[in-house]
Amino acid sequence: MNSRIALALVAMLAPAALSAQSAQDLQKQIEQLKVQLKAVEEKAAAAQEVDTRLTKVETKVAGDNIQWGGDLRTRFDSTQWDFKPYQAFMGFAQNPATGMPMPLTQQVPAQEWTNSVQWSTRLRLKMGITINEDAKIMGRLVMYKIHGGADVPTFNGSPNTVANSFNAGKVPSTDVLRVERASLVYHFKSLASILSIGRQNTTDGPPFEVREGGERQATPQALAVNATIDGIGWKFELEKIGLPEGTLLGLCYGVGYESGFGGGGLVKTNAAPVGFNFTKVDINTTTGQPNVQNASMQIASIGPLKDTTVLGAMFDMPLLFQIGESVQSANFYLGYNRFGNMMDIPYGSLNNFPIPSMPGVGGMPSSQYVTATNNLGDMDQWTMTWKHKVGDQFTYFLSGGYIKSHPNGKVSQYGAYWDFPAAFGGTQQLAGFGGLMGDPINSHTASAYYAGMRWDPLAKLGIGVEFNHGSPRWFTYNPSTGEYSEKLGTRGDVWEGYIHWRFAKNAALRLGYLDYKYSHAFSGWQIGPAAMPGQSWEDAYDLSKNPMLQYSFPAKVKNTYAAIEVTF
What does the pLDDT average to over 461-482? Predict the structure, then answer.
């Protein structure tokens, strides 16, 4: 009996004992897990600390590897523009006697335009990244803005009022930072050569560094190319063959206009508004004036086009010698460029182009895009510069340029049109921007020279004078020098005088005066309309001979400026 009771009690208490034992084991497992979790957390924290330290080190190394610099310029300009009398071309009307088109012109008297107050700000950020002892990346970002100015320029007949990739950062536009330079530079020491790929250093070249009071900033001479160009360059160091240290021979190739898909908006063919058709414009029998409101928009087929290319060569030789007790240094630069398949208008944006508004005819949309309409031919360009520094106080330079055109017979499609009967050729272009250097058939030459000097009587004071002259058909890839108006592309004469005073560390005041005297119209353009029958081109577009022009071109520009320049 007692044994049975004992067995029953054991049976009843067994689950409780097992439960107590299980709880103890579970508690032990939990404690073990806590210990393991703490260990994991400690390892994770340690790893995070190491990662944080590594990130800080890597960031510091990367930051130290990027060299930053730049300059900031705030400039004040006061300018006066003088225009001589000219005949403003307004289009065509039907001659009541013959039924044929006759040109409509309006005599414009001499005018004077002034802009007494204009402020601008230019910020340039330079950067360099050293990849290894042989490779580096070089770049420069630019913001250039007129205070209160429009983001898109108003076309006034000058090519620097068409915003495009050539003059990005060189003419005032928006407050956007634009890439002016971005290239990979690799030094092949075994081959004694340097390769550069990307957006090249093709702006502000020699001898611009004289007026800036600094070091050379670009490869091509300023009189040859002062525009933003994408491409590839290869320089060979010639000191190993006995020439002075630093002597270079370079070859370069760039694309000025991409005609295919992904370029300026064109594929094989396209269409664009290129001007007005004046066929229906007649003479009002009541007023005796033409009914210009009857002009209609002309749409032309464009394409196919070829890419515009630049193939160039350069030779740079520095010289160091002594005359008496004075140490002399000089540089000799020689350059050649072949501009292939030159187009009429680079792809860009502007206001009121190509036909301005006129009485009875509305202008083009206020903001618009333009693009190339035809390849016009090729051009050869030669430039040479001599720069000589006498001691530490005096530097002078002399540059010369020469071009020769090779037209292909085509003209820009921008212009004025008339519908003749089919038997007489149908729709024909009667006036427009014309062909290469004003003649689509015959080759022409032009030349220019650029001279200057700078005297530094004190370590912080520089005084300079410059002069440049261009012949009636002169052209250079120089959409703007960063000044109020084009300088080195001028057809005529330009004088400039300046004082450069470094009044504090990395800060300077520049005071200057520019005097432009233009001899012929279309300064800065590689294209131009042909002369009327019986006229020479030089006489037809001489600004002193009352020329017939679609746009007004100034005969004189006087510009006084003051600027604060800070480098960092």
Answer: 89
Token code pair at residue 560: 């006084």
Q: How far apart are CA 441 and CA 311, in angstroms?
A: 23
Sequence-ordered strand ranges (E) for 210-350 = 230-237, 248-257, 270-277, 296-302, 308-323, 326-343, 348-350
Terminus-to-terminus CA distance in the chain, angstroms? 108
Query: Does residue 454 contact residue 462 with C-beta atoms inside 8 Å?
Result: yes
Q: Look at residues 348, 524, 369 and name the one whose alpha carbon lies nearest to residue 433.
A: 524
Q: What is the pLDDT of residues 264-288, one digit of tens each?
A: 444 566 788 888 899 999 888 888 8
Q: Give residues with Cβ within 8 angstroms of 203, minimum separation 6.
A: 169, 170, 180, 181, 217, 218, 226, 227, 228
Which residue type, as a one-letter code, is found at position 77? D
For 13, the enclosing helix (H) or strand (E) is helix 2-65
Cα 132–Cα 201–Cα 307 angle in degrees, nearest 5: 115
Structure tokens at 76: 């004040």
- Give the SS3 label for residue 130: strand
- H or E element in which residue 369 lies: strand 368-370
**Beta strands at 86-94 and 548-549: parallel, antiparallel or unpaired:** parallel
Task: Find the helix or strand (DSSP H, E) in which 18 lies.
Answer: helix 2-65
Judge contact between 191 and 303, C-beta under 8 A. no
Element spanning 24, H or E: helix 2-65
- The pLDDT tens digits for 18-43 are 455 566 777 777 777 777 777 766 66
Please report the DSSP string for 161-220 in residue order. GSEESTTTTTS---SS-EEEEEEEEEEEGGGTEEEEEEE---SS-TTHHHHHTS----SS
- CA atoms within 13 A of residue 405's CA, in its CB half-sphere: 29
pLDDT tens for residues 61-118?
555 678 999 999 999 999 999 999 999 988 899 888 888 899 988 899 999 999 999 9
Q: DSSP letters along 522-547, please?
A: -TT-SEEPPPPTT--HHHHTBTTS--
The token pair at 210 is 């004289």
The CA distance from 234 to 406, in Å, is 27
- Category of 506 on φ-ψ map: left (φ > 0), alpha (ψ -120 to 50) or beta: left
Q: Is the preceding omega at residue 304 within 30 degrees of 0, hence cis?
A: yes
Nearest to 375 by CA among 298, 440, 427: 440
* Higher per-residue pLDDT: 174 or 563: 563
- pTM (predicted TM-score): 0.84
Q: What strand order describes the sheet that includes 270-277?
A: 296-302, 270-277, 415-419, 427-432
- Supply the DSSP string of 69-118, one letter for each residue: EEEEEEEEEEEEEEE--EEEEEEEEE-TTTSSEEEEEEEE--EEEEEEEE
Q: Which domains are assigned to the chain?
A: 55-349+367-413+434-567 (2.40.160.10)
223 by Cβ neighbours in 10 Å (0-12 / 13-18 / 19+) ranks as buried
Compute CA 524 distance to the chain's CA centroid, rounded to the nearest angstrom. Answer: 14
